[in-house]
Amino acid sequence: MGCDPKGVKRYEAILFDFDGVIVDSEPIHYECWREILLPYGLDLDWGVYAEKGIGISDRAMLAMFAAEKDPPLDIEMLVGEYPRKKDMFRNRMLAEPSISSEVIELLESLRGIYKLAVVTSSGRNEVEPILDAAGILSKFDTAIYGGDVKRLKPAPDPYLLAAQRLQIGRALVVEDSDAGVASGTAAGHDVLQVKNQAEMVERVRQRLESK
């Protein structure tokens, strides 16, 4: 799997984004933020969120939407809602199984062949309980969360840190957002962009099996 014509593995590691790749969680993020921001007069539109809010830090997203109000909203006031949003998101994601059996089977099939990592801009407290509940946290050799680097995607820092921890050079990055693609590319990795989480497993297998 994933070998060049000489039988050498094309990649040493597979680095997965979380939201929109491992799990179809962006609609839940959107619902949580919309509910929290509505009392502040911000009626968040899904199309706008999907186009501008996915793949960037929550602070950058909130600053962008706060600036659109007249007068602009206090960004620190909105950032103060982040802990409540994290709790809301985690509770909703844990209310029922959120990671598909197909994704779990993919990770099981890759482990031992490649080093595996999750590289996300989301916080540890949001992501780790979901991975643990699905029984797949231990399948990853490392995990990079939003608090682990100073510069989030689209900067290369998250993927550079993952490569450093794994002590690898060649990796395949699996991303959904343009910011994530830019981050993985800037870190020097090949990037597979998946626009629909439901097709992620098939797309990854196709990439690794291609010559």
Word description of this protein:
By secondary structure, the protein is an alpha/beta fold. The chain folds into 2 domains: 13-24 and 99-209, HAD superfamily/HAD-like (Rossmann fold); 27-94, DNA polymerase, domain 1 (Orthogonal Bundle), CATH 1.10.150. The protein is built from 10 helices and 5 strands, in the order βααααααβαβαβαβα. It has helices at 26-37, 46-53, 58-67, 75-79, 82-94, 101-110, 124-133, 157-166, 178-186, 200-209, and strands spanning 13-16, 115-119, 142-144, 171-175, 190-193. It has a 5-stranded parallel sheet, sandwiched between helices. Helix 9 links the parallel strand 4 (171-175) and strand 5 (190-193). The longest helix is centred in the middle third of the chain and has 13 residues, at 82-94. It is globular and about 55 Å long. The N and C termini lie close together (9 Å).
Describe the protein's topology.
Blueprint (H helix, E strand, L loop, with lengths): L12 E4 L9 H12 L8 H8 L4 H10 L7 H5 L2 H13 L6 H10 L4 E5 L4 H10 L8 E3 L12 H10 L4 E5 L2 H9 L3 E4 L6 H10 L2
Parallel strand pairs: 1-2, 1-4, 2-3, 4-5
Helix pairs in contact: 1-5, 5-7
> Poorly predicted ranges (pLDDT <50, ≥5 residues)?
none
Q: Give the total of domains.
A: 2
Q: Radius of gyration over alpha carbons?
A: 18 Å
Output the CATH homologous superfamily of the largest domain.
HAD superfamily/HAD-like
Number of strands: 5
Give the integer mean of the pLDDT values: 92
Kindly provide the name of the CATH class of the largest domain: Alpha Beta
Q: Can you summarize the main beta sheet? A: 5 strands, parallel
State the strand order across the main sheet: 3-2-1-4-5
